[in-house]
Amino acid sequence: MAARSAISPQIEPMKRYLLQFAHEHFDFRVQEIKSILSLIGCQATLKESDLNDGSPFMELELASDTVAKALMQRTVLSKRLYEFWEEGTSVSDVSTKIRQLPKDMIEPYTSESNSFRIVVETFNKKLSSGEKISRIEKLTETGSIFRGPINLNCPDYSFHLLEFYHNDATSQPASEPSKIYFGRWIADGQRARIQQYHLQKRHFIANTSMDACLSMVMANFGQIKDNDFVFDPFVGSGSLLVACAHYGAYVAGTDIDFLLLHAKAKPSRAKQKARSQDESVRSNLQQYGFESKYIDVLVADASHHKMWREGCQFDAIITDPPYGIRESAAKIANVQDAKVITLEEGAQRYPQKAQYQLGDIFKDLLNFAAKYLNKGGRLVYWLPIYKPDYQESNIPQHPCLEVESNCEQPLSTTISRRLITMVKIREFEGPESDREQKASIAVDHYQCETFRQKYFRATETETQEKKESDTLSSGKNHS
């Protein structure tokens, strides 16, 4: 596949917009926006400080509504985007300010021939219908900028009044808004895709199937686009392939689990006694009309790179390696004995497996990416972390790859996983035996203790702390 071509940045006057994020995956939201903007080749200015006090609203500058709509066609962590008209601390303040806006900015949307509606939304506080109506009346009273007819069902233009109430966990919610925004609706994000691809509706799932939202976030971090060739070396039930195929990529993968890929493994759904024979990664892609994007999935050991011919190149590698908790981290013990053999009595003998250390998994993954990714291609993968021991030097490195982003998803008070995105910045040169061409980990997070051991130690500690807290609370109540 051809390497990604650079897109020249646009040089146009910038317009103010307001982005409303969904209230989840906080550490991923801004990076998803940056990745999408980089993919579509557009300049932007993001005011990230807007999010510091827990607000879901962030101001940004973009070249045009066209760029804004292209952004919203990809993001799954954003709810809506508005052309940013004004802000204030009260409805009266905002109403006064929008009357002073330049005519050439507002008249195309507020003339007598254009129907409109005003939607009132709040964050961290609920308003009654009467309170919302009083705000709308304040904005549309005599002398307002709105001259067209009101149409609540299908207006020409929709305007939103957005109120943010700061909620400090140590005190009561604020009675007055910290900030009020007003803007013209431009586009919704792709939140509906989460339900469209929800695992409950999926034909084939496994114990560790990636949920639809994070699968699409990973595809966005990988900047997947039409006709890319994407590979997942730990494919499982193919959730990541579905997300990448949604964005137009051709997909392939490998997995060491013969029984899972052949629908012979124990079912993952409650009350299901046996898997259907047609359960497969391919059937998942068929379910969504993406079969034409399916290349193949092989039963193979991701640690053995010599199975790939020289020159095989991928545009992105998107994967979730096994952590050794719900799925074992294993590799083929003997490469010479790697085939499934059918015995005389009809039973099948599978290759013997050996434990695959997490540190080795990630180094092998980076070595594979350095050799088989196109220059400019992206490697996106999850790194499980025991937070008390974590440091930046735990992130695997390779001279051909550069870390673009490192985002955290907390799973408990002590356990999290980090979504690492790396970009291939130079071609792989020299033999694999060359130390200078190999991946390394400055401080191996799992050298002295496996993630499984860290995980269960953390779980036991949290359980004990909860028991002590409950006992102490019970004692206070009795006294």
TrEMBL record:
The keyword Transcription does not apply. Residues 459-479 are annotated as: Disordered. Its main location: cytoplasm. One of its GO terms (molecular function) is tRNA binding. Residues 16-191 form the tRNA (guanine(10)-N(2))-methyltransferase TRMT11 N-terminal domain. Part of the heterodimeric TRMT11-TRM112 methyltransferase complex; this complex forms an active tRNA methyltransferase, where TRMT112 acts as an activator of the catalytic subunit TRMT11. This is tRNA (guanine(10)-N(2))-methyltransferase TRMT11. The lineage of its organism: Eukaryota, Metazoa, Spiralia, Lophotrochozoa, Mollusca.
